[in-house]
Amino acid sequence: MSSTSGLSFDAVDTPVEAEGKYVDVGDVTLYTVEAGPEDGDLVVLLHGFPECWYAWTDYLRPLTQAGYRVVVPDQRGYNLSDHPAAVDAYHIDELASDVVGLIRALGKERAHVVGHDWGGAVAWWTALHHPDRVHSLTAMNLPHPTVFARHLRRDPAQQLKSWYVLFFQLPKVPELLAPLGDYALLERTLRDSALPGTFSPTDLERYRKAWTVPDAYGSMVNWYRAVVRSRPEPRETQVDAPTLVVWGKRDRFLRQKMARESLTYCADSHLRTFDDATHWVHHEEPVAVARTLVDHFDDAWRTPNNTPDEAGHRPI
Question: What sequence ranges are listed for the domain AB hydrolase-1 (predicted)?
Answer without folding.
Answer: 42-286
